């Protein structure tokens, strides 16, 4: 079995109008530049987007993504962020080329995609309601001997002194209670903090992706942007070691 390689993108913050600017950043053009980088990748098994595809829940944003990713011929998956509408994404999914599933397996690794957004589509912070936690528990129980990666939008682990810490998953202990009993969980990946970071907790690796749009400075005590370039990360899993390796790519 060959090494598994996939691209992890997050926080596109696209608008209805492709020329829209935010904080002197051009989200659509940045995403185009990221796609140009993706075209140069040797082999990708799939692309995974962990939310905030849209900036203002505009349906055109999701079609912009498909227009650029579908021609690559690489399967892509998405899940909602706090700026998205999960309801709208489900309605649009059959009309585009996105893989419309929240559990899949590739090259011996199982992926579980969670929705950590407010069901009322108002709150910025994350929360995993009972039905989502039951789905996670059931999905893990179905494949106890299969290495598993969990993806969601909001971060679970804190960055010391960061203004983003109160914006992560607020009931993270409910999440930990489930995965701590499941040794097959290798890694948890997220977006939301517009910053590439890696943590470890009880043998599980945690990775946040850089934004394809503007970058945050999560080390500041108050909201702040960073001057780092937009980008994404490539995660690879060797079939023997099963260790997750992460490489950040920037435009």
Automatic annotation (TrEMBL):
Tell me which domain of life the UniProt entry assigns to the organism this sequence originates from: Bacteria
The segment(s) forming the Calcineurin-like phosphoesterase domain are 4-195
Which GO terms of the molecular function aspect are on file?
hydrolase activity; metal ion binding
Q: Which InterPro entries match?
A: Calcineurin-like_PHP (IPR004843), CNP_phosphodiesterase-III (IPR050884), Metallo-depent_PP-like (IPR029052)
The record's section on SUPFAM superfamilies has: Metallo-dependent phosphatases (SSF56300)
Q: Name one Pfam family in it.
A: Metallophos
Entry keywords, A to Z: Hydrolase, Iron, Metal-binding
- What family does this belong to? Belongs to the cyclic nucleotide phosphodiesterase class-III family.
Q: Which PANTHER family match?
A: CYCLIC NUCLEOTIDE PHOSPHODIESTERASE CBUA0032-RELATED, PHOSPHOHYDROLASE
Quote the protein name from its UniProt record.
Metallophosphoesterase
Task: Give the organism the record lists.
Answer: Microscilla marina ATCC 23134
Q: What is the lineage of its organism?
A: Bacteria, Pseudomonadati, Bacteroidota, Cytophagia, Cytophagales
């Amino acid at each position: 079995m060959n090494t598994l390689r996939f691209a992890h993108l997050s926080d596109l913050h696209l608008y209805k109008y492709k020329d829209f600017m935010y904080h002197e950043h051009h989200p659509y053009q940045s995403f185009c530049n990221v796609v140009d980088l993706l075209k140069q990748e040797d082999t990708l098994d799939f692309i995974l987007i962990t939310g905030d595809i849209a900036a203002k829940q505009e349906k055109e944003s999701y079609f912009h993504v498909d227009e650029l990713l579908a021609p690559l011929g690489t399967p892509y998956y998405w899940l909602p962020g706090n700026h998205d509408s999960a309801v709208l994404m489900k309605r649009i999914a059959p009309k585009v080329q996105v893989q419309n599933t929240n559990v899949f397996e590739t090259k011996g690794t199982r992926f579980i995609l969670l929705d950590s957004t407010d069901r009322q589509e108002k709150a910025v912070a994350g929360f995993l309601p009972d039905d989502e936690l039951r789905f996670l528990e059931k999905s893990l129980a179905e494949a106890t001997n299969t290495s598993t990666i969990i993806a969601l939008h909001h971060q679970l682990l804190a960055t010391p002194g960061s203004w983003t810490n109160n914006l992560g998953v607020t009931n993270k202990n409910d999440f930990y209670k489930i995965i701590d009993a499941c040794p097959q969980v290798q890694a948890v990946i997220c977006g939301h903090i517009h910053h590439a970071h890696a943590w470890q907790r009880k043998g599980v690796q945690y990775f946040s992706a850089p934004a394809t749009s503007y970058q945050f400075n999560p080390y500041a005590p108050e909201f702040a942007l960073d001057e780092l370039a937009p980008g994404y990360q490539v995660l690879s899993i060797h079939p023997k070691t099963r260790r997750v390796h992460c490489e950040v790519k920037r435009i």
